[in-house]
Amino acid sequence: MLCNREIKFKAFLDFAMKAGAEKMATGHFVQTDREGHLLRGVDPNKDQSYFLYMIHAEQLKKAMFPVGGLTKPEVRKIAEEAGLPVSKKKDSTGVCFIGERNFKKFLNTFLPAQPGDMVTPEGEKVGRHDGLMYYTLGQRRGLGIGGRGDGRSFFVVDKDLKNNRLIVAQGEDHPLLYSRACTADQATFIGDSLPENTPCRLTAKFRYRQADQPVTVTRTGDTLRFQFDGPQRAVTPGQSAVIYDGPRCLGGGIIDTIER
Question: Is 96 a catalytic residue?
Fold first, then answer.
């Protein structure tokens, strides 16, 4: 999100306009309309509107998204017919400007790791973590602790920042993995913002490629409160909650707190 806001639709877009360009084209799988609304790409597996919710309508009016109305297989076919050597290249999963590399090692270069205990919600020590920054809510892989008791896998359910402890619990259906509401701050909107203190029935995504979730959203200043229709799994502070009205992406915010 920040790369799109600060680099592609700020530094690069400003450069393009100063250079005399009429439009800037990118390979995002999204679409726009004449009013500057951001719409999902037609390929549901590649739609990237989630990553562009911090962009404003005036910026979108200066942009073009030529692959937004195509599926990825169609794009590959066009590239193959044009003789482009990347037509069969594997999809990139690297972090923007970082690429394919050991992300844990990359973080450790810039942030000093502080190992600590892994404990259950009841306080039982079950292992050691390498640093809280390496883990996210709902994570199962990479914990280095096998199943105990009934043999079910452990999942990250919380972080105790004060005591540098990673809270883990057994079972993918553990109650601490689910929440019923959340708040998000630093709210931004592509066009008009939501009305103040007025509950709005919309849908939202709390992570990329998640199916749309029906929610009631209430804006107070630059804070959004999301009331879920049903319990949501692994809603994570620090990630983004993005709001939709049908095919249109309205905006969103950074998840701050969750309510269980």
Answer: yes
Q: Give the active site residue among 96, 182, 200, 249.
A: 96
Q: What is the rounded (10 degree) CA torsion for 161, 167, 172, 174?
A: -100
Q: What is the CATH number of domain 114-172?
A: 2.30.30.280
Chain centre distance of CA 6: 16
Most confident of 96-100, 101-105, 109-113, 173-177: 173-177
pLDDT tens profile 190-218: 999 999 999 999 999 999 989 999 999 99
Burial class (CB in 10 A: 0-12, 13-18, 19+), 247: middle
* Active-site annotation holds for 249: no
Residue range 2-88, CATH number? 3.40.50.620
Any idea where the domains of the chain sit in the sequence? Answer: 2-88, 114-172, 177-259
Domain 177-259, second-level architecture? Beta Barrel (2.40)
Average pLDDT over residues 221-233: 97
pLDDT digits (tens, 9 = 90+) for 67-87: 999 999 999 999 999 999 988
Q: Active-site residue among 3, 182, 200, 249?
A: 3
Query: Distance between CA atoms of 6 and 206, rounded to whole angstroms?
Result: 22
